[in-house]
Amino acid sequence: MHCPFCRHPDSRVIDSRTADDGLSIRRRRQCPECGRRFTTTETASLTVIKRSGVVEPFSREKVMSGVRKACQGRPVTEADLAVLAQQVEESVRSSGIAQFDANEIGLAILPHLRKLDEVAYLRFASVYQAFESLADFDSAIEELRAHPNEPAVRGGRRDTEQGE
Predict the structure, then answer these.
(1) Average pLDDT of the chain, as a whole number
(2) Residue 85, domain member (yes or no)
(3) Measured CA distances, 140 to 4, 13, 121, 145 (Å)
(4) pLDDT in tens, 55-80
(5) Within this chain, do residues 38 and 67 fall inside the same structural domain, yes or no?
(6) 157 in any annotated domain
(7) CB–CB of 109/128 below 8 Å?
(8) Are 133 and 93 in the same domain?
(9) Which Gene Ontology MF annotations are present (predicted)?
(10) In Å, what is the CA distance from 157 to each residue of 22, 54, 115, 139?
(11) Residues near 43 by Cβ (< 8 Å), separated by ≥ 6?
């Protein structure tokens, strides 16, 4: 790490702490040449390989945008979408891999979206699991019924209750 003051090519780490977001490390450094101190922030970068082969940085906003479309007309708030995007990023980071296919990000969204809203989950899954027929929807619905997740409570009713 070059000193920002004298451009000396080395520095000594004095203190390291996890930043407030928990996803980066804040390091306090000192230059052995000029003695001045400075702070650096280190984060692990996540990159996404799109279908076209283009590589771009992971974006929570893009996750929210894609999920927002599936949640159209559903009782899902922007705050819910922000939490979902954060959960997706945390689960992707926890894998220890730095580069993902866009489809893998879509698949990582599914379990979090299922907990949030089952209808939005089905809409999103139909794209990322490449549903080709009504039978695919039927099997996804049967899977939801066979393994119901904890129902979210909004407005005093269970969102996962369905009339049969």
Answers:
(1) 85
(2) yes
(3) 56, 52, 10, 9
(4) 999 999 999 999 999 999 999 999 99
(5) no
(6) no
(7) yes
(8) yes
(9) ATP binding; DNA binding; zinc ion binding
(10) 34, 44, 15, 26
(11) 23, 24, 25
